[in-house]
Structure prediction request, 269 residues.
Amino acid sequence: MRQYSPDLTPPWKKPQPVPEVPAEPGLVVEEPGTGFCGAVIRCEAGTVTLEDRFGKHRVFPLEPRGFLLEGRPVTLVRPAAAPARPARTASGSVAVPGARARVARAGRIYVEGRHDAELVEKVWGDDLRIEGVVVEYLEGVDHLPSIVADFAPGPDARLGILVDHLVPGSKEWRIAESVTSEHALVVGHPYIDIWEAVKPAALGIAAWPAVPRGQDWKTGVCRALGWPSDNTGAVWQAILKRVGSYKDLEPELLGRVEELIDFVTGGGA
Prediction:
């Protein structure tokens, strides 16, 4: 039979409760067993790391009454976790956890080529799915008038179009002007190709090289940078992998895409 043994320790000899103090970075405490005094630099599960004035680090367990703060015993505890910041999509928008893709709108966004579509999907894909906007590519702008005519944009089916290197007076500019209407918006970015809208720093290069007029731009870029010029598709996939978010893209492209999304989503459900 188990016997009960009463605690006969006098109250004045029992350890008194001590305050619990969050081990916030910068808090200076002393470990009495070793005399080590230092500032908290990190607090992990069950341990705290201190740094003394000479830069020396020591790791100690988080034990009750394990430290002195201004000469008085305290129990260090892990700081409360900071409130989580809202998650962001690659475009910088606030993410909506658990949001389901909306049924596709009648409206569409057209971009000039496959690479343009892949870049827009990577950065704005989450936003576009929530808004129900589908992105398709044209493979050039020569057939844009017939595509727009077949689409027949209207108040509940707006059409947004992104065009490369839209220069006033050019053939592309004249085509864009011919199809622009109240329900069809054509915008252009200043880059020769969508590759150029990726910031050079994201790719570890100083700048996009100048390519002589009359030479295929992608091929010329690859040759100048020592990239394989016989497979620009593979080069593009390598570039795309280096794009993590809107921060890796030039602002001139960001503004145009956001303008198109606002236009297409602003004309009805």
